Amino acid sequence: QVQLVESGGGLVQAGGSLRLSCAASGRPFSRNNMGWFRQAPGKERAFVAAIRWSGDPTYYADSVKGRFTISRDNAKNTVYLQMNSLKPEDTAIYYCAATMGVIDLSIYGYEYWGQGTQVTVSS
Q1: Could you read off the pLDDT of 23-52 as tens digits, one per residue?
Q2: Disulfide check for 114: which of 14, 81, 96, 103 has CB 3.0–4.6 Å away?
Q3: Using only C-alpha atoms, what is the Rg of the chain?
């Protein structure tokens, strides 16, 4: 079992930055591939970024490429999502997810999910 707890969400103006954190406990974190997903009101949960257990490679949705950076600190059992140049369309609940399997860009590839953290970007 893996427990995931996200933090760092909040309200920010367009153009601003936030850093989300996801603290993991349970199964050795360093063996999990990790992902960030988001769900906007009335929309399906969508892939944002993913990172292999080793820290490389990383993957991004086209909509966030060049603005968001995923990273991890295995010593702290934490994965991060640095979000820069935020836009109103980035407003969503952001979820952290973990998989013991191969890295995946779809929600179906992840066995464990956090409760989510709200990110709101005002224009």
Answers
A1: 999 877 888 999 999 999 999 999 999 999
A2: 96
A3: 13
